[in-house]
Structure formats: C-alpha cells, structure tokens
Amino acid sequence: MTPSTSSAITLNINGEKYSLPVDHRTTLLDALREHLDLTGSKKGCDQGQCGACTVLVDGRRALSCLQLAVAAEGRVITTIEGVADGDQLHPVQQAFLDLDGFQCGYCTPGQICSAIAVIEEHAAGWPSAVTDDLRPDAGVPALGAEEIRERMSGNLCRCGAYVSIVQAVARAAEAAGSQDKEAVA
Question: For residue range 4-39, what is the model confidence (pLDDT) as tens digits?
Fold first, then answer.
C-alpha cells in the first residue's frame, strides 16, 4: 500500500478556520495564495531570502515559503489581511502609510508583518545582533535606527525605501510604547 501524499488540514488564519486538502509538499505560502486566495503575502524569491512572504505564526515571524502548510495546522496564522481591526489600520500599517514606507508595495505586506513582530520582540527584551548590553539587568535597549535595521534585515526592498521603513517602524514602536504606558496608568 502506497502512503498518501496529501491530507485534509484545517488552518486558523486571521481568526477564521479554513479546511482544505493539500499535497504534503505544499508550502504555507502556496496554500494561502493558491488555495485560499489570500494574496497579500508575496512570492518573491521562494527561498526564504527576501521576506516578501513573511506572516505571523503564533505571533512570531515566519517565512511562509519555507513552512509546509501541514506543519501550520493548529497554529494561529496572521497574514497582512488580518492585521487591521476592521477599517482601523494597525499602527504599523498607518506609520508605513504616513511616512511613505513603501514604493512599489510588493514587499510591504512582509515588511509590515515583520515590523509588528520586531516591535513585540523588542518590547519583550529580546536582543538583536547589534544590542550592546546583553545583561538581564540592562533592561530593554532603545529601539534606534541601528536596532531596527538589524531586526528588519531579513526583509528586502527592491525599491530601496529603507529610510522610510525604519522611520515607520520607529513611529509605530513609539506609539505602541505610549499605548502600553497608558494601559498601566
């Protein structure tokens, strides 16, 4: 008896459950784009080097071109289509719009998903390769331009909108910090 090469899976995407049959070799990106018509995540290099396909899986960034759809079953997946709250843009989306953090827009969905995760990782105190002081009692480092550039380095922009992208991430991080302070008060 030959083992099956496909399965019926259920994916939790943007708060909705989607059941679909997939070949075991189907990437999460192809399941999103080809099977579910969620085309916000882009197919750039298809090798995990450009970041255009970045989505959030359980709140962490994931390159959907490198993850198999069957491995995403049971996980919470957020695509660019799910980051806004109805008509209210996510603060990162708003910052990209306000500061022109895009040109052609092809990489923007992946950039935004990565930026959301970057801000959360930073707020949680996760260091990057350029974090100066790694001691636990040092506290959370400032999220300056160098930190943002390092943390966003897995997302390429063919148009070179990096200056505006860094500014947008900084503004969204500042807004998130202000919201956190208001929630504590």
Answer: 899 999 999 999 999 999 999 999 999 999 999 999
Q: Are 172 and 95 in contact (CB under 8 A)?
A: yes
Own/partner pairs, 165-168, CB within 8 angstroms, 24+ separation: 165/96, 165/101, 165/102, 165/111, 165/115, 167/95, 167/99, 167/101, 168/92, 168/95, 168/96, 168/98, 168/99, 168/101, 168/115
pTM of the model: 0.92
Q: CA–CA distance from 74 to each of 18, 88, 100, 121, 162 (Å)?
A: 11, 28, 36, 22, 35
For 162-179, give one letter per residue: b (16+ CB within 10 A) or e.
bebbbbbbbbbbeebeee
For residue 28, give the 3-state DSSP assignment. Answer: helix
- Amino acid 142: pLDDT: 85
pLDDT above 70 (res 179)? no
